[in-house]
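Note to self: keep these together.
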Amino acid sequence: MEYLAGVAIAVLVSLSATVIGLDRDRAFYPTVLAVIASYYGLFAVMGGSMQALVVESLVMAAFLGATVLGFKRNLWLVVAALAAHGIFDFFHAQLISNPGVPAWWPAFCLTYDLAAAAYLAWLLRRSRVAANAS
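Structure:
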């Protein structure tokens, strides 16, 4: 169920952003990535684990760095970072002990991340969004 929900919500958010025009601005998907990168930190706070918060913050900083670099240089870096976050979701439990993460979250986030990456790649390939910063 969480896999289907992740894809469905990513597609709905992405299509809505296109219909409304939110994704005409190059900042939309980097902002989405910044929010996605923060959730594991939130879960660490919810789980009351300072150790998890420190480790999750380091990972979050790496994804935020990719967000900034992708926004400033080329949105294909954001596509790669979204996909990388999906891969990170798959291995998260083996890498970081975070008691606040809901059991269903990694699967949901993995599929959301990969679907959002695919949608942004589609937008870039169709030149609906400028890949390079002006």
